[in-house]
Predict the 3D structure of the following.
Amino acid sequence: MVKIGVSASLGGLVLIATLAIPTHKLRAQSPDSAQSAPDSISQSALSTSAPALPAAPSGVEAVDNPNDRGGSISVSWEKSPEDNGAALITGYLVRRSKSSTGEFIVVGEATQGAMSITDNQTTDGSDYYYSVTAFLETAGSDGKKSRLESVASAAGPARSSAQWFNSDRGICLIFALFISAAILYFIRSAKSGKAVYVRKIAGLEAVDEAVGRATEMGKKVLFVPGIQDMNDVQTIAGVAILGRVAELAAQYDTKLEAPMNKAMVMVTARETMKEAYTRAGRPDSYSDNQCYFVTEDQFGYAAAVDGIIMRDKPATIFYMGSFFAESLILSETGNAAGAIQIAGTAQPSQLPFFVAACDYTLIGEELFAASAYMSREPRQLGSLKGQDVGKAIFLALILIGVTLATVSGLSDSALWDVRQFLLVN
Amino acid sequence: MAHTIALIILALLGVSLFYVVYQTIVGRPVERRIVFAYIGLAVSLPLFLKMTPPVSVTTDVQNLADELAKLPAGSRILCAYDYDPPSAPELQPMAVAFTKYAMRHDLKLICMGLWPVGPQQATMALEESLADPEIAAKGLVYGVDYVNLGFQSGQQFVIQSMGSEFKRMFPKDDRGSFYDSIPMLNNVVNFSNVDFVMNFSSGFPGTVEWVQIAVDRFGVKLGAGNTAVQAPQVYPYVRSGQLVGLLGGMSGAAEFEKASAEPGRASTFILSQMFGHAIIILFVVIGNTAYFKAGRRSTGGKS
Amino acid sequence: MRREIPLIITTVAGLVFAVSYFIPHWPFGEAESIFGDWISIVQAFAIWLGVLSLVKVSLEKVSRQPHERPYALVTIITLVGTIVAGLWAGIAGLGQTPMVSFRDTAAFSWIYEYLYTSLTSTMFSILAFFVASAAYRAFRARNFEATLLLIAGFFVMGGRVPLFDLALGSVTGVDTSIFSDFADWIMNYPNSAGQRAIMIGIALGIMSSSLRVILGIERSHIGGES
């Protein structure tokens, strides 16, 4: 990282733009030539009646952009003294060259009031020199725009490079490592035989009863795994629950149908269902037609599932995954069809709809806990406990932060200024 | 004539609610289709009244308008249209008001979409804005004053890649012109070369992803317009300062039209929403009245 | 190896993604965008599997399930019709100068404007009706929390539109925004606090789930337990 802090013209770099003509119109360097043609270091004669150039910016600095993958340099400057909202400055032009005496090319333009730009077109390891000028854009009587530029202020050399660690995310890394360590510790602890208590989750306790209801009524179970793809953790959680539900359905010989919104989810869900039926000892009962693709369109999918619900009147419907606006459409239709409905999603905006329309709702992380809860596998249960440690840490931090912020707000003393204790500006 | 008929029907609806109240209280809740009829009429009839109720601009909307006012002429705004036709009634009015404001104040618009039909919504907003007489007189030129980069698949990964280079995600614009051939995109490499980002969103990918990636990783100044359902989820980002302002739903659109002095459709549509809310509140009150009359049973929640 | 290879791929990909968040230097900084490109490619190919599945299931419904036949026929006809329209318009557009995308042709625009837009808007509009029927049926003050929620909802619904303000103004004769301000306060403070709490819980749940997937404890994405 190379930091430069001098504001001065580089030798020989002066940009002139005016020649007075008899009608006293300004004929400055045209914007097109300023932007498209490389600016050469040149000097031309000044008319004795040339208008004053805008005041130049100062304090130009060029530094490597921190915490990035290289290829960018941040150029900053102090505003021109005339950049005070009085429309004497239109903006700033930033030029770059590979040598202090070489050709400077415009690499960026900033509006008035701006004090920095980032040049993202650098090659790591090469030296770059920058100059910044303030300009005033005016329109002549012919409507053609022209620019009057200040003397340049320069800086250099600066060199870009990639960083091996993003220091802005240091705190994030510490928390991530700590919580991961807690989760791993409790997984190990659970594996060694230590009992893990998990509170009762009504929605998951009702799964057995719900599938049993469908069996008694001779109707099908419908499973909707949300409308996101397999890269969403909610969908993974939903498909995990599908596996448990499929195993139950296979044991009870109940028809299970799972229409899919995403093709990749369909492929995964088929594998899961097939395995579940095999585990239940009923591999022949499974058919790929039970799990099929409908459409990727949100409301097309909602319409299709609504149609299945209204025509087939399933006894039980599961909504487990990521949902959006279609959540209420599906759950109200299911309610109208008289089905028992169990929903689970980590979309906060859809939770109220499911709570209103469904018999049981898994809220947020209860969905992620479902797989562990239903399998009762020690390692999975242990991870839930580790999650709780994370929650305890955040609870403690929130309490401390709120207390400090309250005291700071009530007190004039800088001693209690929260910013002293937190890593924020 | 239509105005009068609409008023009469609305008055009759109000009177007929007594029937609903009576039926519900005596333990015979009305069928859901009757509820549907009420809400359908309550929302559609006000469209014939052509009234514009007064709106007061809330803080979050005003903050967004103030941030826009600070942008000098020539500032570049990246505008992401992340919604589709179903959400257009709420989001298109705010998108049009925003686009008109930008064009009227010589702010350069770089439009794009993370949803497949987002760029089409952008085109509709641009065309409607350009049809405004005052804006038309400016003679704005595509590629110089505004551009539509189109859609790119990849959802949040597109935002991530735009942090490095816009051209990588949008080698051509929506009309097929190469990125480098578009005059206003000279020296626009990534987020650091735009002055403001505005996102209109109704789901995923949307404002949450823009905050998590563009704001948190690349430090952009972001404003957002969301549907009323999504807005509650986004308010924490406004409080934390990650969003400079938020337009929430139809009411947010109407408030923005007032704050930016760009009258539009939201200011009249809000009347339908008012009647819709009124009907829902009445049904909730009726239902709870019957519930309390029947004797409150503490069954607890089921979640 | 049928299970081990996917597990290894999952573990490696998960760790690379996690590390690339903290290390911007090549190759980690590029990992997210490279993987993102691969995901897009795989998704695009997977759609073919989905379409074939849809056609197969629909044809079976047409031949064996009389009560499903009309709906399955509509599905097949619209699927084939849209593909034909796009192909025909796209091929014709290729020959024009400048080339015209199939999206900009009359046939596809017609399908988009008069079929797709109308149908999706209709489905979305159904929400308004369902919200009303859900509110009438289910919003009850069963306990303290539900009562609190109802009251908050009452003020937010009345404050987010100029309903209560206008009503109060017409009674008192004074313009007021007290209900809008109160609704704004509810959204910005109690609502934000609740949303943040849910978000923190969800983030921890995602972290725990992701660790289970990376470590191979959770195997539902590869078909579940063997």
